[in-house]
Design goal:
Layout: E1 2-5, E2 10-14, E3 18-24, E4 30-37, E5 88-91, E6 101-109, E7 126-134, E8 139-147, E9 153-162, E10 168-180, E11 185-191, E12 199-204, E13 208-214, E14 226-231, E15 241-246, E16 252-258, E17 264-270, E18 277-279, E19 283-286, E20 290-295, H1 298-314, E21 327-329, H2 331-334, H3 340-352, E22 357-360, H4 389-398, E23 402-407, E24 411-412, H5 417-421, E25 441-442, H6 448-464, E26 469-472, E27 482-483, E28 488-489, H7 492-509, E29 514-517, H8 527-530, E30 535-537, H9 544-554, E31 563-568, H10 581-588, E32 592-596, H11 604-626, E33 628-632, E34 640-646, E35 652-659, E36 670-671, E37 680-684, E38 687-690, H12 691-697, E39 699-700, E40 710-721
Parallel strand pairs: 21-22, 21-32, 22-23, 23-26, 26-29, 29-30, 30-31, 31-32
Antiparallel strand pairs: 1-2, 2-3, 3-4, 5-10, 6-7, 7-8, 8-9, 9-19, 9-20, 10-17, 10-18, 11-12, 11-14, 13-16, 14-15, 15-20, 16-17, 24-25, 27-28, 33-34, 34-35, 35-40, 36-39, 37-38, 37-40
The structure holds (2R,3S,4R,5S)-2-(hydroxymethyl)piperidine-3,4,5-triol.
The site of (2R,3S,4R,5S)-2-(hydroxymethyl)piperidine-3,4,5-triol (DGJ) has 12 residues, from loops.
């Protein structure tokens, strides 16, 4: 519910259990008032006072009690005396800045506008548009706020409308900015690198600015467009959390600035450094959405609110995805060294143990026998598959399995037919040597001609096959963002629009294909990508022990069914570690399950186990993949981990418990199942436990867990609610 209290000029966004409020101040600025647990009103005497704090800029001559650099604001422009981080820096052709944005009008409406080439949250409840106008130039900024029924999330973004008659240089156009009141906060962020994505970092925020950004052309392995702001006392089960998630997959930035009066400014949006953005006269620029989520139920409350939001408002509704199929991918089984017989052998052995989808990874096209050639040549490698892809896909379908294919459409190899014919399609700065990465280069996706050419090549392949699934990879960062077609720098924002337009065109033509995203694993895993691709390959690191950490970080913002998790071979290809098959399955089982090994080479005992594992997964798949995920706290979090998934009807609970290394004479492990209903009774094997016992006393984990690389999956059923 959104309403405007005209007597106080206050906008009140009343969410499920929280409120978000701001007002138009006496000078026409948008002053942020409150974001937190639901309140039923705000007395005007209780809001930020006009104070003379000395040596500060004021709005008018003669009024010293309105120092703009201390006021909590909804948008922060540059050059007007707000010396904190700006969120919007717009420069006119004469070098002056747009910094006198004043309230002009607003409207409250219901928004069903289609996605305008950017990922967009779906099923909005109500929307608010507040229009600001510069006092001197015909430049308008529309701030958008959207709410969602029954949730404590809202979305923010903005649009700049340039009617000034001059080109406007956009130095910075973040989607949102706000100032939280003075208090001590911790930041929660997810950072990493290739094969080490999304480590959880928690650290205190102190005076100054902490900024995180990616200018790699994608959200990247290194950073994630997510920020959590926690009260000091917040833990996994209780306490306040404010979070931001960006619905965008390109370069981004966010800032947390603790200012001179200990307020916290938080902001998020597209990357400013060399953004190459400008707005021509009579043109507009719309920024992507940031989703703001509030929870007073700790980190798990935030995680669950994120999952609800992504499930209902971000993910596309793909029929295949209701029960994510168990897949087998030939990458780690064969790399580039395969032929039709080998692939069929893998598929048949997988079929026998219950796998449902076979994915042919890299190496099926052009002359692609290693990773130095052929990207851009989206036609069959006849040497490897002389009978054709159609024959292979038919044979897979005859096994009653689904068939999927790998592509990397944004890339080009120098050794390719496409490069011979269209060297100008490659992004590079004029005559400078293009910067290689994995011996490949990036196509100019800011050009609709290039996007169309790739689309047409892919359509030729896809039309011939009855494809069920496509894995869309992207294996390098973007540098030298300069178009050889237009002979001008390109904006990463325009590249991203090209990327989104290609996936949108393909999805329109092939509505039944399940598209999975990948970027060398999880190098472009964000809510923007999830708007088109319902699942993502979480990491190229398939080691079960390393995956504990990667998946625990990822699940803070991504629902379990969106995260690809594969059982791979031992010794593990990334770490060389040998872990039991049961552990490898138990680590993948809560997520979107797959296999990444040659099952035809496994012994009979292992295959029996895999069959049992898959049977178990299928029995509980719907409940676990769509259920409520909780990270349980352990005394030794690096060594012992436990996750719990409760089905949405509360009738089935699956508990996943892991121990990395044993220790002699180890303390007992009593696991509190926080989140269960304390007024219910539950059954584990043939024993009955009260909910209050499981929550407050905890479940004693059997001592046989005190082994290296140990795991257990415990199934709990609801006996009765009392
Ligand atoms: C990187 C991906 O993450 C892998 O799974 C695999 O598809 C390779 N690319 C293929 O080149």
């Amino acid at each position: 519910m959104i309403n405007f209290i005209s007597s106080q000029k206050v906008f009140n966004l009343s969410l499920k259990d929280s409120s978000y409020m701001f007002k138009v101040d006496d000078f026409g600025n948008l002053e942020h008032l409150y974001w937190g647990k639901k309140i039923n009103g705000l007395n005007p005497n209780n809001t930020y006072p006009y104070l003379n704090r000395g040596y500060s800029s004021n709005h008018h001559q003669g009024s010293r009690n309105d120092t703009i650099e201390h006021k909590p604001l909804e948008i922060a422009t540059y050059g007007n005396g707000d010396f904190r981080e700006s969120s919007l820096i717009l420069q006119m052709a004469d070098g002056t800045y747009i910094n006198d944005l004043k309230y002009e009008s607003h409207r409250i409406y219901s928004d069903n506008s289609p996605n305008q080439g950017l990922p967009t949250s779906r099923n909005k409840e109500m929307s608010l548009e507040v229009t600001l106008k510069d006092a001197y130039e015909e430049v308008y900024v529309h701030l958008y706020y959207h709410t969602y029924e029954g949730l404590d999330s809202l979305s923010r973004h903005l649009e700049i409308d340039n009617r000034s008659g001059q080109e406007l240089r956009v130095e910075k156009a973040l989607s949102m900015s706000l100032d939280l009141p003075n208090q001590s906060y911790d930041a929660l962020t997810l950072s990493g690198m290739w094969a080490q994505e999304r480590n959880i970092d928690r650290f205190p925020l102190s005076r100054g600015t902490h900024s995180i950004n990616s200018h790699r052309g994608a959200s990247s392995h290194y950073t994630t467009p997510f920020l959590g702001v926690l009260d000091k006392s917040t833990n996994y089960h209780q306490g306040q959390v404010h979070s931001l998630n960006f619905v965008y997959s390109g370069s981004f930035e966010y800032h947390c600035e603790v200012d001179s009066i200990e307020s916290l400014r938080i902001q998020m949006g597209i990357q400013s450094l060399n953004s190459n953005l400008s707005i021509k006269p009579n043109h507009k620029l719309m920024t992507p959405e940031v989703i703001l989520t509030y929870s007073d139920k700790g980190i798990n409350g935030m995680l669950q609110a994120h999952h609800n939001f992504v499930n209902d408002h971000i993910l596309p509704a793909t029929p295949l995805f209701k029960k994510p199929p168990i897949l087998i991918n030939n990458w780690e089984a064969t790399y580039f060294d395969f032929d039709q017989d080998k692939l069929l052998e893998i598929a048949k052995s997988a079929k026998e143990v219950g796998v449902e989808l076979f994915v042919l990874d890299d190496g099926w096209f052009g002359n692609r026998n290693d990773d130095t050639t052929s990207l851009g040549d989206w036609f069959l490698n006849k040497e490897k598959l002389p009978q054709g892809l159609k024959m292979l896909s038919d044979q897979i379908h005859n096994l009653d399995m689904k068939f999927g294919l790998w592509i990397e459409p944004e890339m080009i190899s120098m050794k390719s037919q496409l490069y011979q014919e269209h060297p100008e399609y490659l992004l590079r700065e004029g005559k400078r040597t293009p910067t290689p990465s994995r011996d490949q280069y990036v196509l100019d996706f800011s050009s609709s001609e290039v996007v169309r050419a790739i689309y047409e090549m892919l359509v030729k392949v896809f039309d011939e096959l009855d494809l069920d699934y496509v894995k869309w990879d992207m294996n390098r960062p973007i540098v030298q963002s300069y178009s050889m077609i237009t002979k001008a720098p390109i904006a990463n924002f325009d590249y991203m629009k090209g990327f989104y337009s290609l996936i949108a065109m393909l999805q329109e033509r092939y509505p039944k294909i399940l598209f999975e995203a990948c970027a060398g694993g999880g190098g472009r895993f964000d809510w923007g990508v999830l708007n088109y691709f319902p699942q993502v390959w979480t990491s190229d690191n398939t080691d079960a022990i390393e995956r504990l950490k990667i998946q625990e970080g990822s699940v803070l913002i991504f629902p379990q069914k969106t995260m690809g998790a594969h059982v791979s071979d031992i010794p593990n290809h990334q770490t060389g570690r040998e872990t039991p098959l049961d552990l490898r399955f138990a680590v993948a089982a809560p997520f979107n399950l797959g296999y990444e090994l040659d099952l035809s080479k496994q012994d009979a005992r292992s295959l029996e186990k895999v069959k049992d594992h898959n049977q178990w997964y299928k029995t509980y798949r719907e409940e676990t993949q769509n259920g409520r995920f909780t990270i349980l706290e352990s005394n030794d979090p690096k060594n012992q981990k436990a996750w719990m998934i409760e089905s949405l009807d509360g009738k089935l609970i699956t508990l996943y418990v892991y121990q990395v290394l044993a220790s002699a004479n180890a303390p007992l492990w009593r696991l509190r199942l926080n989140g269960l209903n304390i007024n219910a009774r539950y059954k584990i094997d043939d024993q009955i436990y009260s909910g209050s016992e499981l929550v407050h006393f905890g479940l004693l984990i059997p001592v046989d867990m005190n082994k290296d690389f140990a795991s257990k999956i415990i199934t709990i059923t609801l006996e009765e609610e009392v």
